[in-house]
Amino acid sequence: MKKSTTLLKPVNSFKTAKLSLIVGAALLSSTLALTSTPALAAWPFQVEGQEMPSLAPMLEKATPAVVSISVVGTHKTQQQNIPEAFKFFFGDRNRGQAQERQFRGLGSGVIIDSDKGYIVTNNHVIANADEIMITLKDGRQLEAKKLGSDAKSDIALLQVEAENLSEIKLADSDALRVGDFTVAIGSPFGLGQTVTSGIVSALGRSNLNIEQYEDFIQTDAAINSGNSGGALVNLRGELIGINTAIIGPSGGNVGIGFAIPSNMMDNLVKQIVEFGEVHRGVLGVSGRSVNSEIAKAMELETSQGSFIEQVMPGSAADEAGIKAGDVIVAMNGKAIKSFFELRAKIGTIGANQKVKLTIIRDGDSEEFTVTLKQDQSADIAAASIHPMLDGAKFNNDSKKQVVVIEQVAEGSPAQMIGLQKGDLITGVNKTRIKDLAQLRDYLKDQAGEVFALNIVRDKNSLYLMIR
């Protein structure tokens, strides 16, 4: 039977991926439902003189920190090109023009800092949003601003200004064990705030093709369309994950849900707070997950870990002394089960951070301390650099010290101003530009101004005027 995965998306914009992924969003209401597991005996209360197990005391503290999010935004859609047979009459004036269509979406979020008004949610909940409104459990509605996001791990950070907010304390998600009890808080199918319970079914779930960086907590706590960005907590009411995806037919729950671990989320949020974006750390290796065949061929005693096939010259791994053929089995004392898990942890921990890797080499266990370098690929959204660059995909060429245009979307603003795939941005006005960070910082002060991009195309230099 074909397996379908349901990625939790804003309710009005469902899309299908490799496993039929749907991401759900929270809807507004005030109903509180509780599906409890009989084994969850905690916080007893009195009924006719007898103590009864209940999660209510914990939930009374945790649920006010889970909010509903409503967004209004616009999607850019490509206008259909005129068939060749009719261009004689109409010309080609409409070719490549983009149209905007308004959309509305709903989701959930979690208050992680009540003093600063920080709210964490999924990136897909607020993507392309022009207006973001937060509804608290007490009914207050607040306008939120986006501080930053990371599409590759599906995390976004919002901020509101309000008093008397409740927050959820973060737990150490690395300390989770399979079998630990979990409680999911969200608003599925428009029913309002709903609470369900279950256990940690698995840890380190990856290679699901949901996000680019995956290290999910799997739980059987009921998660449905409407829970996107909601909280997964432990029995102390501490946040252990952000609910993100499910596997199930037609968006329904079958007991397989996924949450982004709180430690991963926390690493990303700290970078967004400091830099306004994620400064992704890179190790500089390629490899694959250890399996029985690799273990046999390389005479390994372990059947788990990350087998290193190549170490990039000058990379963080190279400078630390890691070699091809090494097997990374732990990071900072925590076991690494696969290459995907290693990639997710490294890719979200942040640039310039030090990590301790445990490596099996020639049958012996060794430890290496590695200082991660910053990923120079295009994590910075083009639209966040300048609206007229929206639709272009950038990368840094560290050897030539230029910004490379890797891709330009059809009908996008970037195409309209004349950018093409393969263009090299070498400067703005008369200022030399060497990388994306310099480009972004320079254009920050050019709001509303006319400026010229210095482009090298096919060895020819030209200027593109942008206003």
Structure, briefly:
The protein is mostly beta strands. It has three domains: 1-271, Beta Barrel (Thrombin, subunit H), CATH 2.40.10.120; 281-374, Pdz3 Domain (Roll), CATH 2.30.42.10; 382-466, PDZ domain (Pdz3 Domain). The chain has helices at 56-62, 87-90, 123-126, 262-275, 292-297, 316-320, 339-349, 382-385, 413-416, 436-444; strands at residues 5-7, 33-35, 45-47, 50-52, 66-78, 98-113, 118-121, 129-135, 141-150, 155-159, 181-186, 194-205, 216-219, 231-233, 239-247, 257-261, 281-282, 285-289, 306-311, 327-331, 334-335, 354-361, 364-371, 373-374, 392-397, 402-408, 424-428, 431-432, 451-457, 460-466.
Please outline the helices and strands:
Layout: E1 5-7, E2 33-35, E3 45-47, E4 50-52, H1 56-62, E5 66-78, H2 87-90, E6 98-113, E7 118-121, H3 123-126, E8 129-135, E9 141-150, E10 155-159, E11 181-186, E12 194-205, E13 216-219, E14 231-233, E15 239-247, E16 257-261, H4 262-275, E17 281-282, E18 285-289, H5 292-297, E19 306-311, H6 316-320, E20 327-331, E21 334-335, H7 339-349, E22 354-361, E23 364-371, E24 373-374, H8 382-385, E25 392-397, E26 402-408, H9 413-416, E27 424-428, E28 431-432, H10 436-444, E29 451-457, E30 460-466
Parallel strand pairs: 2-12
Antiparallel strand pairs: 1-15, 3-4, 5-6, 5-8, 6-7, 7-10, 8-9, 9-10, 11-12, 11-14, 12-13, 13-16, 14-15, 15-16, 17-24, 18-19, 19-20, 20-21, 20-22, 22-23, 25-26, 26-27, 27-28, 27-29, 29-30
Organism: Colwellia echini
Signal peptide: 1-41
InterPro entries: PDZ (IPR001478), PDZ_6 (IPR041489), PDZ_sf (IPR036034), Pept_S1C_Do (IPR011782), Peptidase_S1_PA (IPR009003), Peptidase_S1C (IPR001940)
